[in-house]
Amino acid sequence: MKHQIFDNNENNKIKEKVFTPLYGIKLGDGLFSRVFENNIKYLQKINVDSALYWFRKRAGKDAPGEPYRGHFEDNLHGQTAGLILMGAGNALRWTENKKLRETVDFIIGEIKSYGDNDGYIMAIERELFATKEYPHYVRIWITYGLYAAYLSDSKDAGILLKNWQNWFNNECGDLPVIKYLSLAFQGVVCSPFVYNTPFGTKKDIEVTQKYYEEAWRLGQYIMDEKDVVQTRRQHGYEPHPHGTEIEAFEGYLDLYKATGNYYYLNALKSFYETYKKDWQHVGGGIVMCEFEKSTPGCAWLTPPRAYNELCCTAFWIWLNQRFHRLYPDEEKYVNEIEKSLYNIAVANQDGEETIRYFAWLEGKRAGGGHSHGGLVHCCCGVGTRIFGMLPEFLYSVNEDSVYFNIYNSSGFTWERENNIVNITEISDMPYDGKVKINISCEKSERFNVMLRIPAWTEGDIEVKVGNNEKYRGKAGTYLCIERIWESGKDNLIEFELNFKWNLTKYTGVEKIDSFERYALEYGPLLMSVVSKENFDGDNYLNLFKINLKPDGFKSWLIKDKDNKPLNYNIEGYDNLTYIPYFEVETGNYFTCYPLYY
């Protein structure tokens, strides 16, 4: 029997309190729907023969065409197949698409035919498996891709995943060295992830603790060492700090759930607060990135500095999703997911063409690849996985409650133990805060509706239920509505989220003498100032000098005369317009930190 959620609480010492649906959600018209459909079109541009090239070569089979060139396939054979499966498999959980389905089935069939009898399925020869990032980065992508394909009803993908994980746990002779390879902390997440699938075993946890866990690193965080993020002192391939270490802490949180060992939780709390305090940009981006000289609070702005990498934000999203499942009544975790989605993930989708690497906060938007262009790279992989998973971020459930986490037009068929609840939500978020929810039950039943009242709202929010009931929700909380939801009736919920403006002064290392720099947020959205003028040269910031008092912005911001949503003109500056950062187009000069004097 297919289950709408997967509950691993029986095998975990620390129990999840809510679960995210595996299917049953359909996006309605709106921003998320456009992003979801763009992702499908992007996936269909990727050449399947190129993605399978190295699998076929290893198997000694005919390999038509050419592989994708550049670091992400030349040095990490097989990553593109994982990229396709992550995006397409997750998208097929929510909607049917014939071409995507054929692509997933074809890739799974090919990998199955080229794999070895003992479960080894990588696109690299066995003797090279314990080199570069194959045991962690590529293995994770293949694992995530197989599981996404399994969730989209590919039974062969589930069999491949089970056998592949069994090989890694029991047959891989390279385990003693893998933690000393490049960016090996990425590998902490993979086996604990599998542990929380139908294919998990106790060995997944044991192998991770023995061969991947960096106890000394956890100790650094527990002791709050001041340079802990930007300094790694591990043995092996150079001290290599990177914001993608967030991925390891996804794994450590899974290890905490599995074992109940408090040192994981203590390290996680310190890690989380350290990133929030010193390594997060306004809007949610992560400043730390590899091969960039960074210090706490540096807050780089100028391109081509390496900051606000989509990979780092992706792992931040999934870490916060894990925290939400453990602590669902703490609104802050979904708040992090929401602003990261709007201001980094959605902002880094370049239509249906590609997915950007960096979300730079001034100058011009980054191209698709590492800095300029490219169809397949690490941020494309995490991006297409996020976009395929978008419906999953909207709701979470347990036996007593349904949580409304991120508001978006959608339909949700909630399969309860002895009832079917159909939820319809209408909202034009993030362009408008009005929300209408209708709950229709096959049978009358008492359960909780948990409405998130985001921290970015202004004042209490009045919620109307039916004709007579009224509730008030406070910002930064979940409003619980417990009642009998009657069958045969429309149980209508209505409210409006009032967006709050927030002004943040820039305090990083790129301050400019004689000017103050401020970022402006509206509700969950980071705003940016776009110039209608072009500028030939490097001094593009001359376009964004504003002789106004920043804290008086409500008096000099003017709604767009054509009523374009969330567009604001600046009094006295006809060449400048405030728009949401995710709407900044490639080629336009902009900044999220104009210069006030």
Helix and strand topology:
Blueprint: E1 25-27, H1 31-43, H2 48-58, H3 71-74, H4 79-91, H5 98-114, H6 134-151, H7 155-170, H8 190-195, H9 202-211, H10 215-222, H11 246-259, H12 262-278, H13 310-326, H14 332-345, E2 349-350, E3 354-355, E4 362-363, H15 378-389, E5 395-397, E6 401-404, E7 410-416, E8 419-427, E9 434-441, E10 445-453, E11 461-465, E12 469-473, E13 477-485, E14 491-496, E15 501-505, E16 516-522, E17 525-531, E18 545-546, H16 553-556, E19 557-559, E20 568-570, E21 573-580, E22 590-591, E23 595-596
Helix pairs in contact: 1-4, 2-4, 2-5, 4-5, 4-6, 4-15, 6-7, 10-12, 11-12, 11-13, 13-14, 13-15
Can you describe what's shown?
Helix content is 32%, strand content 19%. The chain is an alpha+beta fold and 597 residues long. The strands form four sheets. Strands 4, 15, 16, 17, 18, 19, 20, 21, 22 and 23 form a ten-stranded mixed beta sheet that branches. Strands 1-7-8-9-14-11-12 form a seven-stranded antiparallel beta sheet, with no helix packed on it. Strands 5-6-10-13 form a four-stranded mixed beta sheet, with no helix packed on it. Helix 1 packs across helix 4, helix 2 packs parallel to helix 5 and helix 11 packs parallel to helix 13. The protein starts with 24 loop residues before the first strand and ends with a strand. 49% of the residues are buried.
